Amino acid sequence: MNTAPLFRPQTTTRRKLPVPTRLLRTRFNPSFPASTSMFSESTFPRAVLVLVAISISALILYGAADSLRFNSSSSGYPFNIFPSHRYSNNSGSSNSDPKLSINDDDGGGGGDDDYKLEKVLKEAAMEDKTVIIATLNEAWAAPNTIIDLFLESFRTGQGTRRLLNHLVIVALDRKAYRRCMEFHAHCFALVTEGLDFHDEAYFMTPAYLEMMWRRIDLLRSVLQMGYNFVFTDADIMWFRDPFPRFYLDADFQIACDHFLGNSSDVQNRPNGGFNYVKSNNRTIEFYKFWYSSRETYPGYHDQDVLNFIKFDPFIEDLGLKMRFLDTAFFGGLCEPSKDLNLVCTMHANCCYGLDSKLHDLRIMLQDWKFFLSLPPTLKRSSSMLWRVPQNCRLGKHPLIACLNFTI
Fold first, then answer.
1. Rounded CA gap, 174 and 191, in Å?
2. Each residue's pLDDT tens digit, 269-294
3. Residues in contact with 115: Cβ distance below 8 Å, sequence separation at least 6, in sequence order
4. What is the pLDDT of residues 373-387, one digit of tens each?
5. Which of 89, 141, 381, 405 is 20 to 30 A from 301, alpha carbon to alpha carbon?
6. Ranges of Polar residues compositional bias (predicted)?
7. CA distances to 101, 105, 157, 186, 285 from 108, in Å
8. pTM score
């Protein structure tokens, strides 16, 4: 191996300098002879190396700082938030690559009002400060998947199109946020540090459980800001305006996988994918209790924990008025609505896997459109039934054929 140094030591014998060094000497001091240049042969390469090292370090630090604009926050909220840019109704889409900016406000000022969760809610809210909230990740945001069917149901439903003006879509990852910005006015990004929700979250996996509990904590924040909400999973089809079917005296009302006939019966089996909650001290304390109960019942998702705590004396002490929604109006694949003249929403619950959901939701929308095409007399006398579930029959999946749960 040749171990000769890159540069020979200077001698008293005059020799020809390498071309790059000669050129640089001339550039730095064209009027001085080589022997008086500011860089000697031995120090010049070292200086160049130092400058290169500094440049590379600066580039690395800049890149790290740029990534932190998305990944870090000094927000007082337990999650990072990226409120939406406004959607342009003229162009039909948002900017092609909207800049995601972290809300660094701690709730006490100092942040840009355009980047606050409260501003997004205010823009979407009805006159009584009610919003509709749905969550979305990359798997459900892809074209021709869940989100497109969800929005199509609003557009084809009776009295539901106008409700899109009050819908806030909470994106759980960057791609879902950018996709939302392409088609909707009120998008909001919720990022949990150290967790990635962009893939399909399979039932009862750690990612699924974390996603469910992040949702509960977000909804608690919405209540604390003074907003009522209807929370809806994106795999729920909205066929009619549900507000006339809500109970006026209830604080918290929730859809059911199985409804026993009495809206006050706590033995009903609720489904956390659809609920209407009014903002008051009772509901705020209830959501705090619900979220904290995840530690009392580790390994359970929010719906299971709700089934535990609904019997807790704390609920009665709060004075919380809880009601369970009839599946005749708020149905699902667990217990479908039997009369298409009454149905408000239909949920793809009791269903395993994205492909199965998509298959049955498309059939559900086809059934609804066919029902709308009937003459009024036939609609009123129709005994038409849903053609679903098909692929969503739990017994068709070998891993869950013998399990008694809902998704």
1. 8
2. 999 999 999 999 999 999 999 999 99
3. 82, 83, 101, 102, 103, 105
4. 999 989 988 788 999
5. 141
6. 88-98
7. 18, 7, 41, 23, 22
8. 0.71
